[in-house]
Specification:
Helix content is about 25%, strand content about 35%. By secondary structure, it is an alpha+beta fold. Bound molecules: coenzyme A (COA).
């Protein structure tokens, strides 16, 4: 994995790059308007992992209210998957949220999404419930696992390169 990357909060300027990744990795991608609303909402944070040429490799959208947060979207561009970028961004996000005194982080993930379940388990998420028939996959429905992690700050949280 290249060590040349930076993690930054994303503005609306990155919407086209986010949508390119979103459409590439999900069968049912968010619309551009939903993505834009998420970037602009006061209750969400959008973080990106970028290469030195400002090219977006991965992004995460998280909603945070009081001491709880939820990952709403987490995507790594296909050609960069399984090269350690997802875990760099997830570790950064968890540490950043912990420093903001957020104690619990939740998310939903499809039962067949083994790469995603693996990364979340690796970072301490535990299953707390199942939502039946939550996702549409082709002409079938799939259950979602609801996962939760308890957050603790590990190192100083700031933008880094
Ligand atoms: C899930 C996702 C975000 C992981 O990001 P990534 O950059 O590919 O993951 P990393 O390279 O950082 O790998 C971290 C861990 O994830 C797991 N993982 C990643 N890719 C995997 C794969 N193809 N198969 C199994 N486990 C995998 C492993 O536990 C890995 O740790 P390891 O390298 O020690 O085995 C990425 O694959 C992705 O964008 N998938 C499509 C969108 C998606 O499903 N998002 C999550 C929705 S809930």
């Amino acid at each position: 994995m290249s060590t040349q990357y930076q993690i930054l909060p994303l503005s609306e300027n990155y919407l086209p790059q986010m949508m390119d990744i979103e459409r590439e990795v999900f069968d049912h991608p968010w619309s551009a308007s939903l993505m834009k609303d998420s970037i602009l909402s006061a209750h969400t944070e959008t973080w990106g992992l970028l290469d030195p040429n400002d090219r977006l490799i991965a992004f995460v959208v998280v909603s945070a209210i009081f001491d709880e947060a939820e990952i709403l979207n987490f995507s790594v561009a296909k050609i960069y998957q399984h090269q350690g970028f997802g875990q760099k961004l997830l570790a950064y996000l968890m540490n950043h949220l912990a420093y903001k005194k957020i104690e619990k982080l939740f998310l939903e993930v499809g039962v067949s999404n083994i790469p995603a379940i693996s990364i979340y388990k690796k970072y301490g998420f535990e299953q707390i419930s199942v939502r039946k028939n939550y996702y549409q996959v082709g002409d079938k429905q799939e259950d979602a696992l609801v996962l939760q992690a308890t957050l603790q700050p590990k190192e100083s949280s700031h933008y880094f390169r």
